[in-house]
Amino acid sequence: MTRLMQLRKAGNRRKRILLRVLLGLIAIMLVYSINVGYTIWKYAGRTVNIPSDAAIVLGAAVWAGKPSPVFQGRIDHALWLYDQQYVDKLIFTGGRGSEDEVAESEAAKQYAIEHGVPERDILVETSSVITEQNLYYANKIGDAAGLSSYLIVSDPLHMKRAMVMAEDMGLEANPSPASRSAYQSVRSKLPFLCREVFYYIGYHLTKPFR
What is the Cα 156 distance to its own chain's centre? Predict the structure, then answer.
């Protein structure tokens, strides 16, 4: 009987230790996630609009062949950069959600042309579906066109992750978040922030395997 009680006590101790370790790991991840969220939120206010060769506009959804409000906010900001002569070229990124849809970049190009940008000053890539690919393919077509410096355009809360990726790729780039982002209310920003925290942590965790 005594032996059985000893075994039970030992088992209970192991369970308590495992529980403490688990709670400790959860606490560490929670603190880390909060810190990442704060970093993303703080970085969202950073704008470095300096003369550059081109603006790289990160893709977003297209609705019925037209840029969604989120995408339009990014494109409008890029048009402003172009009009103010911060950039000489516009690089639109984003492929197709499905075969029968217009590529995000093509919809953006058409929108820009309709707003007075000459077609010769627009470059597009239609292969990407995620942020990292947006930057990778934009860099490739930029290199082919002799471009070397960029302003990265996206929504403010997207900028931290995008700029980390751009830096990892060796791009000479600066952040230029959309001043009229579709994400204005706290209700819309918080889900976006949570997604960015998740993707940002995921990017860093998988970086060694890239």
Answer: 9
Closest CA to 53 of 151, 122, 162: 151
Distance, in Å, from the CA atom of 182 to the CA atom of 74, rounded to the nearest integer, reads: 9
Question: Using alpha carbons only, what angle is made at residue 52 by residues 46 and 53, rounded to the nearest 5 degrees?
Answer: 140
Determine the 3-state secondary structure of 67 from DSSP: strand
pTM, two decimals, is 0.88
pLDDT tens across 98-116, in order? 777 899 999 999 999 999 9
Instruction: Return the CA Rg of the chain.
Output: 22
Domain ranges of the chain: 52-209
Pick the CATH number of 52-209 from 1.10.1040.10, 3.40.50.620, 2.60.120.460, 3.40.50.300: 3.40.50.620
Q: In what order do the strands lie in the sheet with 149-153?
A: 122-124, 87-92, 52-57, 149-153, 172-175
